[in-house]
Design a protein that fits this description.
The protein contains 9 helices and 13 strands. The chain is of the alpha+beta class and about 325 residues long. The protein has 3 domains: about 100 residues, Rossmann fold; about 120 residues, ATP-grasp fold, B domain (D-amino Acid Aminotransferase, Chain A, domain 1, 2-Layer Sandwich); about 70 residues, Dna Ligase, domain 1, CATH 3.30.1490.20. α2 links the parallel β3 and β4. It is globular and about 65 Å long. Bound molecules: adenosine-5'-diphosphate (ADP) and magnesium ion. The site of adenosine-5'-diphosphate has 21 residues, from β6, β8, β12 and β13.
Length: about 325
């Protein structure tokens, strides 16, 4: 019996695989951009950890999300334990779903209008949204990752010029968010990491150089920016209770949740990530009980529980 990692990213599997090996957790990659599903058979015994990336299309893996969804559905229909299963995958792939779920849980979010379509619809959406959300505002694709395609738009004329230009970024599902810009008290956001429902630590990410804020070591967008991320030692805030309650109801076994704090101390949650690659410098700073260690302990526990279930004779 082993832990299968549902993965599409060639680099992300490497540090995770090393950590699993060091922890003695038997594992294998379940690659999601190509392959087969033997629907008439039982899935292998074991546990699965869904690490499907929202930015897979940028690596040419345009069907990987669909494949992951079908795979996870098949596994769950056979009662297999999938960490970050169907609900988490749905949230990962849609900022609209994140927004609706956060609002329903009473967690503050930036005011947002969803737009389905291209340049014409985005412009009409902006005209409709501006009286409520003001300017500048944020334009971003529904299925995001690494801050790709996230733009700060100062006014309607700037949006018109952008939409007319060739560099309109892609929204893989054709859905856009026109969102209230939260003016941060300091040029940074906070990202809270949770493993197995427990808060691990909060990271401060500087936004001074832009919106591409992937904390992974070696991630193309940020590998040179060592000081961009730092640990918020001793972070403790009522928002953690809200977030813990939220993730427990959403099947988010492992996640990183981002918020911005404005000058009045209000916190607005705007991004939920199920595929954090823990930054080695942050992990070293966190010391014992960092996110990687917690994740390894969770995987070992889940594997032992699956093994136990397997060994109990079925009535
Ligand atoms: N509503 C907002 N107000 C202010 N800044 C924002 C807002 N939405 C996004 N940003 C900035 O853009 C970055 C990337 O946006 P995000 O929604 O996290 O996309 P991704 O899923 O690609 O990471 C954020 O970390 C933040 O710095
Ligand atoms: Mg983000």
């Amino acid at each position: 019996m082993r832990a299968y990692i549902i993965n599409e990213h060639p680099d992300w599997i490497v540090p995770l695989g090393k950590a699993l090996e060091a922890s003695g957790v038997p594992w294998a990659e379940w690659y999601t951009d190509a392959g087969r599903l033997a629907l008439d058979k039982e899935p292998p015994e074991g546990i699965w950890f869904n690490r499907m990336s929202a930015s897979s299309h940028t690596r040419g893996h345009v069907h990987a999300v669909t494949h992951a969804r079908e795979l996870v559905g098949w596994l769950e229909s056979h009662g297999r334990r999938v960490l970050n299963g169907t609900r988490a995958l749905t949230l990962e792939m849609s900022k609209l779903q994140q927004h609706a779920a956060l609002n329903a849980a009473g967690i503050a979010t930036p005011r947002t209008l969803a737009v389905i379509g291209g340049a014409k619809e985005i412009l009409a959406g902006a005209r409709e949204a501006i009286p409520a959300i003001g300017t500048p505002f944020i334009l971003k694709p529904n299925r995001g990752g690494k801050g790709l395609g996230v733009r700060l738009v100062s006014e309607l004329s700037q949006l018109e010029a952008y939409l007319a230009s060739a560099d309109l970024s892609e929204s893989p599902d054709g859905v856009w968010l026109i969102q209230e810009y939260i003016r941060a008290a300091e040029p940074c956001i906070t990202r809270c990491e949770f493993v197995g429902g427990e808060f691990v630590y909060a990271i401060r990410s500087s936004t001074a150089e832009g919106f591409e804020l992937c904390p992974a070591d070696g991630c193309g967008t940020c590998s040179t920016a060592g000081a961009k991320f730092s640990l918020r030692h001793g972070f403790d805030d009522p928002i953690l209770d809200q977030l813990r309650g939220f993730i427990a109801g959403q099947g988010l076994d492992v996640c990183g949740i981002e918020f911005i704090e404005d000058a009045s101390g209000n916190k607005f949650v705007y991004d939920i990530n199920g595929t954090t690659n823990y930054n080695p410098a942050i992990e070293a700073d966190a010391g014992q009980g960092g996110a990687t260690q917690r994740l390894m302990a969770l995987m070992a526990r889940e594997l032992a529980a699956a093994s136990e279930r397997c060994s109990v004779p079925q009535p």
